């Protein structure tokens, strides 16, 4: 009898494939997470003065941090290991009243005063010698070294997979292998069935040629007409949608030459929008803040706190942006003075209305009392600023239709509001009812 197929070879192939898939799965379970170094195991040595470094840190942040940093010069000199450079008794006198020490002719006091642009230090007579010892203990702590990155270590913060589950790549690989096995099995079964049919003299019926689909479609004139109408309407719809989006730059988010985080400034630090964009209260435009506004704060802030860093933006990245600001304004952080060498910053404009549209920020911000977030979105959450609203004509008209006119403390609208509210039979008028839909309001 003629053999119709080698079934043992098929079974052997299936067993080998399943064994391979099982070995891959077991390998994924055997992987162990790399040990993560615990930073808390290294403790700083005690300060030589016997003060409490923890209390000293609180006192330093409350009294000294505005003008001093531990490892970099600010308004005053860096204070790391200051006890090794000055006697403790001299530090007591200097901190309690530096002016008296300078007037006494003390050589060290005069030298420090002249090295720091003759900026007088604030006197702190309220600090006891014990408080100063605590501050010295804090400044005497060695600088913490950044932990070395462990190659191949999984991230700890916010990580969902702690090494105990199966990787998604392994699961997808196993599924792909199963699909490949099924395809191979179907091919082998097809071959076996053909051999069985040939061995038993069974003739496999061939498929009769059928009319191609496209020919059948062309012969049906009604179907062709309906399809043509559908394609024309669909094309007109998409063409209309395309042209309606011309000039609409919603979610436009360019990269600026100096990275500015609204999330840090307006969000974490709660800086009012109109502190930087002061022109929005009195002018047509909100204006681009000049760099001297930035330097009001950043003369004393040359680096960000460790807690400011995010997985996407490191502390080193933010510090580098502050250095770009210093370079643009010509600020020398070491000497705490301007060099006179400035560079222009080529900011990229984000919001840009057409030339035939008139919009006045002061009318909306000061008169109407509209919050900046109404049009610009939750800027306090934006790491990179973007155009939040579409700024289309329809969007503006819809706002005028639903926004009531602010009457509190606005006598300009009192008479016309009384007349129009009586005409429309309402207590509060919208901007549209006050003429906010007239063409000449925005186009003239």
TrEMBL record:
Record keywords, A-Z: Electron transport, Heme, Iron, Membrane, Metal-binding, Signal, Transmembrane, Transmembrane helix, Transport
Cross-referenced InterPro entries: Cyt_c-like_dom, Cyt_c-like_dom_sf, Cyt_c_III_dom, Multihaem_cyt_sf
Signal peptide (from-to): 1-30
Superkingdom as given in the UniProt entry: Bacteria
One Pfam family per UniProt: Cytochrom_CIII
Transmembrane region(s): 170-189, 222-243
Gene3D superfamilies per record: Cytochrome c-like domain, Cytochrome C3
Protein name as it appears in the record: Cytochrome C
């Amino acid at each position: 009898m003629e053999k119709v197929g080698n079934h043992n070879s098929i079974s052997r192939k299936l067993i080998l494939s399943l064994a391979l898939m099982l070995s891959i799965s077991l390998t994924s379970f055997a992987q162990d997470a790399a040990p993560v170094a615990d930073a808390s195991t290294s403790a700083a040595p005690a300060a030589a003065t016997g003060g409490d470094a923890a209390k000293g840190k609180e006192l330093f942040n409350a009294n000294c941090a505005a003008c001093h940093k531990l490892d970099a010069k600010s308004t005053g000199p860096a204070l790391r290991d200051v006890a090794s450079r000055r006697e403790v008794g001299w530090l007591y006198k200097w901190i309690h009243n530096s002016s008296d020490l300078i007037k006494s002719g003390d050589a060290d006091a005069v030298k420090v005063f002249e090295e720091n642009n003759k900026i007088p230090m604030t006197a702190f007579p309220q600090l006891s010698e014990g408080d100063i010892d605590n501050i010295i203990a804090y400044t005497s702590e060695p600088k913490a070294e950044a932990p070395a990155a462990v190659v191949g270590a999984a991230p700890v913060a916010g990580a969902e997979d702690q090494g105990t589950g199966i990787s998604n790549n392994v699961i997808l690989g196993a599924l792909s292998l199963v699909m490949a096995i099924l395809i191979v099995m179907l091919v082998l079964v097809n071959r076996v069935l053909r051999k069985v049919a040939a061995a038993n003299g069974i003739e496999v019926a061939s498929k009769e040629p059928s009319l191609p689909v496209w020919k059948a479609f062309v012969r049906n004139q009604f179907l062709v007409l309906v399809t043509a109408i559908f394609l024309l309407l669909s094309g007109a719809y998409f063409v209309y949608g395309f042209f309606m989006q011309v000039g609409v730059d919603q979610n436009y988010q360019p990269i600026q030459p100096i990275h500015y985080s609204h999330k840090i400034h307006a969000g974490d630090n709660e800086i009012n929008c109109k502190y930087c964009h002061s022109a929005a209260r009195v002018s047509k435009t909100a204006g681009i803040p000049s760099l001297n506004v930035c330097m009001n704060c950043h003369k004393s802030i040359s680096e960000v706190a460790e807690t400011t860093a995010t997985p996407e933006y490191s502390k080193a990245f933010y510090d580098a942006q502050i250095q770009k600001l210093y370079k643009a304004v010509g600020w020398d952080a070491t000497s705490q003075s301007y060099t006179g060498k400035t560079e222009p910053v080529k900011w990229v404009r984000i919001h840009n209305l057409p030339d035939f549209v008139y919009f006045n920020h002061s009318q909306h911000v000061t008169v109407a009392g509209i919050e900046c977030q109404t049009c610009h979105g939750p800027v306090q959450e934006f790491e990179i600023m973007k155009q939040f609203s579409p700024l289309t004509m329809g969007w503006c008209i819809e706002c005028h239709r639903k926004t009531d006119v602010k009457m509190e403390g606005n006598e300009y609208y009192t008479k016309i509001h009384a007349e129009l509210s009586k005409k429309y039979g309402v207590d509060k008028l919208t901007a549209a009812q006050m003429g906010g839909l007239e063409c000449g309001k925005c186009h003239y």
